[in-house]
Amino acid sequence: MFRLRSADGNVIELEPEHGESVMDTAVRAGVDGIVGECGGSASCGTCHVFVPEEHLARLDPPEFAEEQTLGYTAVPRTDASRLACQVPAADVDGAVLDLPERQY
Amino acid sequence: MPQTASTGAVELDLDPFSDETIHEREHFDTTVRETAPVVWLSRYGVWATGRHAEGEQVVTDWQSFTNTAGTGLLDTRKKENWRAPSPVLDADPPDHTKYRSVIASVLSPVMVRTLQEHFEERAAQMVDELVERREFDAAQDLAQAYPLAVVPEIVGMSPEGRENLLPYSELNFQAMGPRNERYRRAAERAQAAVDYAATAVLRENLDPDGIGMRIYAAADEGTVTEQEAALLVRTFVGAGVDTTMYSMGLTLHALMTNPDQWALLQSEPGRARNAYEEALRWATPGPLLGRTTATEVELGGVTLGAGQKVLVCVNAANHDPRRWEDPDRFDITRRANGHLTFGKGVHACVGQMLARAEVTAVLSAFVRRVKSVELVGEPVKLDSNWLRGWEHLPVRVTPH
Ligand code: FES
């Protein structure tokens, strides 16, 4: 289980299926704040999320494609930024992830 | 002599480049997909997969399935190629990373958003003119005309010589297949166009406000050389025109031949973007993607030798019943993301957001102005080794 908090403070709790990414789970649940247009290719930047520090440290660092896509998200990246399609939902179990104001 | 498959592999004597396959993919795609996860196409000495899972593995795992031998049928390291290798298409990380990020930065979602208004205006203009006429060729006059007009505009290329773009781009894609008659004809037609493409993308010939010049800005910063910048602009123009125009025609045709989906889009034009996504899945303009094994590697239970070509049959994978429910149904409400039309991972189409913006703009303009559309003549299919699409779609429209 993990939670997503929209820019205006709404929190929604999500239950991932086995092996899903955070983007997959959010899109399946119809969460508005995550688009996921490229289907998880790390190339559209429309699944931008902010991950709390303690969970961030536990994730594998971003690969090439994610690193470069994070460079041009609609809301500029911060140190907490990740692409939800590259984050296994199981790795953020219990976390509250923040959504940017917009993805386009 | 073609190489032979390793023992135990299923061999098929099917030709992905025969007239039959090019004009009607279904038999080839279904046979490749349903025979085995991976098959050996003995005629060309290459592997092929028509399954979504294996196809996804091939396009995602760039370390095992390299782009450095070209993304077509032939190993460009062995055969002399008609053009210099593209630093972004025919390369892998780390080299590829630098070049891709230059293009990615000028085609980012944020950049594309700034172009949206321009795309919508041009789409409205073009559709208005066509609706006036009532009868027109939806392939030539809309699906082809639109990207041919807007892509050079946004790149900042001079209008002069633009008629060369199509033959240039055509050769680019014909050359991905075998050196057959289609390739030879395209090469003849493109002679002047190759020179045009080399000079039209030079700094001095570009508008300072276009995105072409933003690529040169990377050269000014020392990220890439002047010559590499020119190759990147050329790659972008060569890869972004044909693919977009054929996918637009395929989308229009899909809607015309599925009246229930057309009616749905009529009542909810906001679905245009997803309708395009579904059309990208259902009728991909790029039915094949080529990679080459870097080492011995396992795929779908078969061990592939090093240095062998693998063709991902994208259309087959996009219709794989293991991945999609009711895969042959065109359904604009479906969640179609995850199709392999744009590839995936580090080599995923860098222009995909631009294509979405262009086609969605046209589709929205079209569906808002046109109440009904019908074919009034025999549509003509494109005759290409590597792309699929409509050359002619004669239609009559009734405005709202
Ligand atoms: S879904 Fe496109 S970058 Fe994550």
From TrEMBL, chain A:
The keyword rRNA-binding does not apply. GO terms for biological process: P450-containing electron transport chain. Its cofactor is [2Fe-2S] cluster. It holds the Pfam family Fer2. Residues 1-103 form the 2Fe-2S ferredoxin-type domain. CDD domains: fer2. This is Ferredoxin, 2Fe-2S. It comes from Lentzea fradiae.
UniProtKB/TrEMBL annotation, chain B:
It comes from the Bacteria. One of its GO terms (molecular function) is iron ion binding. Keywords: Heme, Iron, Metal-binding, Monooxygenase, Oxidoreductase. InterPro entries: Cyt_P450 (IPR001128), Cyt_P450_B (IPR002397), Cyt_P450_CS (IPR017972), Cyt_P450_sf (IPR036396). The keyword Oxidoreductase applies. The keyword Protein biosynthesis does not apply. Belongs to the cytochrome P450 family. This is Cytochrome P450.
